Here is the input.
Amino acid sequence: MEENIYRLPVGDTLSAAWLKVKGAKGTMWAGLLIVFVAMFAFGMLESAVENMNFVVGNIILLIGQFILFFLQVGLLYLGIKRAQDMPITYDQMFMVFKSDLFFKIIGLYILQFLIYLPLILLGFLALNIYGLQLAGAMSFWLALVIYLCSVVGFIYLYCRLLISTGIVLDKKTNPWEAIKQSFRATRANVLRLVGISLILLIIFFISILPLGIGLIWSLPLLYIAYGMIYHRLFINIGR
Here is the structure.
C-alpha cells in the first residue's frame, strides 16, 4: 500500500504561528535580549583584548560565536515548545548546553556541513572558473550554470534538513537519525518550505521599515514559525 505524503499548508501554518506570538513575545524577547547582550559583551571583550593580543582576541571571538550560536538554537527550542502549546520560560533556552543535547547538536551540524560540502566546493569551482577566464566568454556561462546549480542544490538541502535541528532538540534523537527523519518528513514540501521562508523574509524586512517597531512581533514569529513547521511535519511523518 502506497504511503500517504503530508503536504504542509503554507497559509495555515503561518497563521497558526502568528496566533501563538500573542502571549509569547515577552518570553521570546527576554531570550533575544540575552543574545543581544552576549553579542555586545563578547564584541567589547574581543575588541579590548585584540589590541593587546591578536591571537587571544580571535580565540575570544570564536568562543563568543560558538556560545551565540547555541543561544540562538535555544531560541528555536522556545519556538518549538510554543508551537506545541507548552509553557515556555526564557531560561529554557539554556538547556542546549546540557551534555545530552550539546554534543548531539555539534554532531548534527558537523554532519550537515559534510552534506553541504560538495555544493560549497561546487560554488568555489564556479568562482575559480570565472576568475581564471579559462575559455573567454564561455567561462562566464559555465561558471554561472555551475554556480546556479550549487545555489539550487543548497536551497534544496536546506529545506530537506530544516527540521533535523528540531528533532534533536525535541526528541533528543541522534544526529544521523534526525537527518533521515527530516528528509522523510519534508518530502513533497520543498517548494512549500521555500514559500514559507520567502514570506517570513518579506515580513522581517517590512517590519524593519517603521523604525524597527515591527520587530517586536516579527522576530518571535520567526522562531515560532520554525516550531510550527517542525511540529506539523514531524507529527505527520509517514501519515
